[in-house]
Design brief:
The chain is α/β, with parallel strands linked by helices and about 240 residues long. Helices cover about 30% and strands about 25% of the residues. It has one domain: 3-Layer(aba) Sandwich (Rossmann fold), CATH 3.40.50.150. It is built from seven helices and ten strands. It has an eight-stranded mixed β-sheet. A two-stranded antiparallel ribbon has the order 1-2. Helix 1 runs parallel beside helix 2. The longest helix has 12 residues. The chain is globular.
């Protein structure tokens, strides 16, 4: 298994993280709507720091990013990744639980690639279970915390498997959230959508709907996927 992932402008070591760099994180880091210059960003469940680093690159380090991670080993590795990146002063790593986190800030963008397994077999690896299962961060608690921390005009961007995304969305819409963007992601041309990229708002807005194909039938990456991640993937 690779010890890390090399992007065009930064390297993400992930050998100490329960969850490795994957397509979900890359998609969210590129999809999330950027806040205005100077608007604060919060990354919930930062893991290796991938999404925070992508956002730092997209904002050229001009927006302060708070990245909170519950697992101490992952938080330490993320801090190292940030320190070794071109934007060491843009990202602040916080070791802790988002459910007990408090701040006087109101973030203009909150991002999360949250744990989503709800009733599946628990992994014998406690850290992997924590990273993957909603026991550590139930959807209702995540939405409530995001509502407390989000600026009135802010956006909350997430990536989830289709079924879990629909569950979270139903819960969100019943608790005062609005769906600003929804992108259905298909991993391959011959498969149905497996992931949703969501952007939620506390202000009413019309929903912008789109779809994204990762790989074409011949296994090559689609032009959509290449365009979205061209600033990050070495091969693009």
């Amino acid at each position: 298994m690779s010890a890390g992932f090399q992007c065009k402008k930064f390297y993400v070591a992930h050998d100490q993280c329960a969850m490795k760099v994957g397509t979900d994180g890359l998609l969210l880091g590129a999809f999330a709507p950027l806040p205005p210059p100077g608007g604060d960003i919060l990354d919930i469940g930062a893991g290796s720091g991938l999404i925070s680093l992508m956002l730092a690159q997209r904002t050229a380090g001009a927006n302060a990013i708070d990245a909170i991670e519950l697992d101490p080993a992952a938080a330490e590795q993320a801090a190292t990744n940030v320190a070794n990146s071109p934007w060491p002063n843009a990202i602040r790593l916080i070791k802790g639980d988002i459910l007990t986190y408090s701040s006087g800030k109101r973030y203009r963008l909150i991002v999360s690639n949250p744990p989503f397994f709800q009733q599946s077999l628990l992994s014998p690896d406690q850290r992997r279970t924590q990273a993957r299962h909603t026991d550590s961060l139930p959807f209702a608690a995540l939405l409530q915390k995001a509502a407390q921390l989000l600026h009135d005009d802010g956006s909350f961007a997430l990536v989830l498997p289709l079924t879990e995304a629909e569950q979270l969305l139903q819960l969100a819409l019943s608790h005062g959230w609005y769906l600003a963007q929804c992108c259905k992601v298909r991993s391959k041309a011959d498969k149905p959508a497996q992931r949703l990229l969501l952007c939620l708002s506390r202000q009413y807005t019309d929903t912008e709907r789109s779809s994204l194909l990762v790989q074409q039938a011949d296994g090559s990456y689609s032009s959509q996927y290449r365009a979205l991640l061209k600033d990050f993937y070495l091969k693009f």
